[in-house]
Amino acid sequence: MAKVDDLDEAIKKMEEQIQFVAKEIGSAWRNLGRKLKIRDCEIEGIVEENTSTEERAYQVLKKWMQANGTHGATSHVLYKALIAIGKTSIAEKIGRCSLI
User: Could you give phi then psi for residue 85, rounded to 5 degrees?
Assistant: First the structure.
């Protein structure tokens, strides 16, 4: 039962992180999506289906999580992607929250 609880807690923390990143990332959400290996056609689909920047960012992050599962869509991968696109302050905030 402990493994299930640990997994649930990890998913909850990751969900909190993606909500935070979606709120903070602004127009750099496309670059983040590309860095997380979301295909351009999927990004364009997100643009067509959503009008707000925050929702677009959230959807690209959800797509990344769904594509990679709990083993591939990790806080560390997200942290490195944020650093790679120059969003160090966002990366540091999620890192300071001990969610990595």
Answer: -95, 10
Determine contact, residues 58/22, Cβ cutoff 8 Å. yes
The least confident of 34-38, 71-75, 93-97 is 93-97
Burial 33-61 (b: 16+ CB within 10 A, else e): bebbebeeeebeebeeeeeebbebbbbbb
The model's pTM:
0.87
Query: Which pLDDT tens digit goes with each residue over 44-66?
Result: 999 999 999 999 999 999 999 99
Residue 90 belongs to domain spanning:
2-96
Quick one: how many helices (H) and strands (E) in the chain? 6, 0
Q: How many domains does the chain have?
A: 1
CATH number for the domain harbouring residue 40: 1.10.533.10
